[in-house]
Each structure stands twice: as C-alpha cells, then as structure tokens.
Amino acid sequence: MGVMLGQPWGLLALLGLPAVLAIHLLQRRAVVIPVSTLFLLESLPRESDAGRRVERLRGSLPLGLQLLGVLILTWLLTDPQWLEKNSVQRIAVVLDSSASMSVAKPVVLTDLPRDLAQLASATTQSEVYLLDSRQTGGPLYHGPEGEGILAALEAWRPAGGTHDPTPALRLARNLAGRDGLVLYVTDAAADLPPGVRLYACGRPVENAGIAGVTVEETSGQLEWRATLRNYGNTAQTRQWQVSAGNAVLSSGNLTLPPGGLQQQRGVLPSGMDELTLTLSPDAFPMDDLAPVLRPKLKEVTVSLPAAAGPADPLYEALFASLPGVRITTGGAAVPVVTYDPLNPQLPAGAAVIFVRDPKPSAPVLSGTLLVEKHPLTEGLGWQGLVCQGSMKVPLRPEDQPLVWIGDRAVVFLRTTGDRPQLCFNFDLNKSNARRLPALVLTLHRWMEDYRRQWPAEEWTLTECSQALPVAVQPAPAPPVLTLRTVGQPDSSRPVREAGLLRAPDLPGVLEVWQGSTRLLRTASHFADVREADFTGKGTQKDLSGATAAVTRQHRRDDPAWRGWLLALLGLMGFSWWWLGRLPSPADRNPLSPTPR
C-alpha cells in the first residue's frame, strides 16, 4: 500500500525545525540580582552575561519534544493518503476516426500517452481501452498504460467521414464501468453525453481541395467535372494536374479566393478509361487527389415477346429508352412476356408481364384510382390512367399491389423464388399509359432495383467510405470475394458480406472479383466538406480535477490522523509542563536575596 500527499504545501511546516533550533541556539539574557556578598555564589556554574548570542546547542527534553511536534504537525498538514491495495483504474479512450484527425494525430501521439500516464499514476494498476469511434472490430488496444498505447496510436489511421460517435461512447462507458474515466479524443469542441470528458487537440489550418467529381455525357462526349474549394480564410494557390498513368495531359497553377469555389472540366479521351486529378499537397492531402473512371452500367438483357400484334413496336421503344438495357432475342436476364389465359404459365424468374387481350374492345375500367405508398410509385402521377377492362392476371395473396382502379390491381409486384416480377395488369395497347411518364419511370425504377441484384460488371464513381453493395453470383460460383486496390495487398471477404462492402477510406480505385469475374470497379474520391474544413478546430482538454477524482476513488485518508493530533496536543502540553517545573534562579540559590 503506497502513500501520497494530498496537500504537498504542508511540507512548508518543516521550516519549523530550523526555527526551533535557532531559538535554542540563542541564549536567554542574564538576569541581574543584587546580593550582599558573593562567597555563597562561588559554587554556581558560570552563565552567559553578554545578552543574546549563539552558543553550543545543548540537548534537552524540551528541544526533542518541540522537534517531534513540528514533524507531527507537518504530517497532519500534508494530508497523507494511503493507496488501496490492488486498486485498478479503468480508462476508456474513444478516438475520433474522422479524416480531419489525421492533422491532429501528431499532437495525440505526444500528449495522450503522457496524460494517460498521469491519470494512471494515482493507482497501483491501470486498464486502458482504445476504441475506434466507428467501431470497426474490437478495441485498438486493451491493457495497462505503457508502450503498447503508443504503438496502437501509431497504427491508428483516421480516415473516415463525419459520423456519430455515440455508439462507441456508450460502449466505452460500459467497458470503463461506473467509476472509470471516458475520454473522447477529437479535434474540436463537441456536445458529449454526461460522464464523457472532452480531449480536443485540433488546430486551424488552411486547406483547399477537390470537393466533388462527376462524369456526364455532353454533346456525344464524356465530360468530367471537378469542383475545387478553398476552406480557409486566405487565398490559396495550387498546382493543378490531369494525368493518365505516367503521362501528364494538362497542368497549371490556379488561385482560389477565401471560401471560394472553382470548377475544372475536361473531356475523357476516346479509348481512355481512367484519369487522375491532383492538386499540390497541403496540410490535409486526402482531398488533393481524385481518380476518374469511365462509368459502365451493368448491362441487363431483355427479350421481347414474339411478334403477335401491333403493340410489339411499343415494347421495343419502351425498353430501348431505359439506360443499361440491351434487347436480345433469347437467353435474356429479364424476359418480357404477355399473359395468355389459354396458356397461363408465366416465367419462374424475373420478368415484366403485360396483358394482351385479343378482343377488339372492352368496357373502360371504372372506380377510384388508388396508388399504394411504395418506392416504385412515390411521386408518380398515375391518376390520369385510362384502360379497358380486358382480361387480367389473377392476383395471388402474396402479390403486392401498387396501383388500383376500383377493385382491380392494374400494377402489382410478384416474387417467384427470390426473383421479382413486375406486372402491368392491363392491355398496354388499349390504354393511354404510353403517354404517362409514370409508366416509364415505374419500369425504370424496377429495372434499377433488379440491376442492383444482377451479378454483372459495373464501373462507378464513389465517395470514400461509401457503401458498395455488390450483387454476387450464386453457387457454384466461388464463395469468396477478392478486393484489389492499387498499391495495397489483396484482401478477401466471404460472399455473405457482399452487402457490407465500402469504398476505401483513401482516394483510389477498388476492384471486387469473384473468382475470375470482376463484379465492380470503382474510383473513390474524398468529398466530405465537413471534414475538410478546419476553421473551427481547436484545443480543449477537459482533464481538470480528473487526477483528483481518481485519487478520491482509490485512496483513503490516514486512519491514524486522530491519534497523531492527540499526540501533538500531548507533546505541547507536556513541553509546557516541563518548562514550567524548571527552577528559577532564586530557587537554585536559596541564600540569595530577592531580586530588586
């Protein structure tokens, strides 16, 4: 069990030791007593008669008692506290892993281990947890305060976007326990839950970077556009460069005013699939590079129904207007079929179903038109639909109606196995649906939903850390996905985690393979403007009283302080009594006359 001083200023009471010694070194001024004769005083020892001066220190009981009293008083004034045996202080540290913390990381490496060591010094043992604010995996470190913390901090790579740290702080509180400390290491002031101490160590820096990249087809050419932004309070001059591989296509200097925006654009040359846009680096280099890819949609094949009526050209024009759709004659991913009551068998997989009524005419459907709330129909104007009451596809209990006219579901969804089907339950050629944008938009939305589930190669532009759900091939395809990023070793993920994939935290090009099939190629750029703005960053360490709080939890006052106080009072009383019983000069020579 160790001991520490609660009030180190109490050691000033030790100055009483030399004060007591000085008093005893100074002799008392002699007392002059007139007497009638001197022969009776010859046997007395000679005493000082020169007034106050320093003489040899003579040991005496009062001197020892007074010195001991000063020591006891010093002990009481320093408020000694005894460290409880086997006391453990738990400290949970949540590291803000947003990208802006990459600028504050050097300060964290220097200050945080030192402050943790100070907090841990108040106990015999410490248990430290280092957590990532994004909760990716387990703790970055768990163990006693020491060198392991510095190694974990050096391996920490803050590169995420803006996110809510509340789940990580809640986990930290559970790990630290009721009496533990929870620190949130970030780079700016933040509103934190009760019981969480802020440890902000950021600083304002001037930053300019690429805030966004798009690729669009304009006048038959594929044009890229990059938005540049200056987040600082002073004008920034940067070097701008467009390159393909090792070849520089264009370069030059540009100046961005304080808080200003500027757009750069160019044409993606024919036959070139990838470009790299760069700015000269600054304090925050993550937004100084942006790769650009030629977008490539997943191609979904569609087969139209065999020519059997005047509506076939309408089907061809309808599906040809959808992006990423290729019309084929057979073996299509999505067949377009027409329902025939004489042969009611429908495809077992994904399909778009229409009704073709051989009768020349039928009464117009009447009744209230009702559109169900669904992502496929949200915001679409089906209210103007007019169609004839032709024969219909029987509705199953598990089908999901989207549009009603009276008691008839004229548009509904059906699932066979795990494949979706979209059914337009009316004769397209005997309606005004071809003049309603809702028809094309509903079909387009359904096709986009299906495209996300269709395992085919796709090239995209994404933002860093963006979710990348990847459609995978079913068995017997390989059950493992391979992730390949230029400049980094390949990594593997099981197929069941395909919906959890994310773009890289740093700008770059990522490829996702399943066996020998490439499913995705995406170019990621940093576009979180909140993380790129450092004007509001600062330092604020809420550690005031933290060491004292730890001390109060794991140390107790000296249980014998009352005994020491009584001993001090006893010494003072005994010393006074002893001094009072010493004989006066008159008592020591009873023959001497009374002094005048």
Structural commentary:
This protein is of the alpha/beta class and 596 residues long. It has 4 domains: 3-83 and 560-588, no CATH class; 88-204 and 536-555, von Willebrand factor, type A domain (Rossmann fold), CATH 3.40.50.410; 210-295, Immunoglobulins (Immunoglobulin-like, Sandwich), CATH 2.60.40.10; 300-453, Rossmann fold (3-Layer(aba) Sandwich). Helices cover 22% and strands 30% of the residues. An 8-stranded mixed beta sheet has the order 16-15-17-18-22-21-20-19, covered by helices on one side. Strands 5-4-3-6-7-28 form a 6-stranded mixed beta sheet, with helices on both faces. The radius of gyration is 44 Å and the shape is elongated. The two termini are 63 Å apart.
Using brief descriptors, characterize the structure shown.
6-stranded mixed beta sheet, 22% helix, Immunoglobulin-like, alpha/beta, Rossmann fold
DSSP E strands, number: 29
Sheet/helix structural class? alpha/beta
Radius of gyration: 44 Å
Strand-residue proportion: 25-35%
Please give the CATH class of the largest domain: Alpha Beta
Shape: elongated
Mean pLDDT comes to 83
Strand order of the largest sheet: 16-15-17-18-22-21-20-19
The overall number of domains is: 4
Unreliable residue stretches: 47-51, 591-596
Distance between the termini: 63 Å
CATH topology of the largest domain: Rossmann fold
In which range does the helix fraction lie? 10-25%
Largest sheet: 8 strands, mixed
Can you name the CATH architecture of the largest domain? 3-Layer(aba) Sandwich
Number of distinct helices:
11
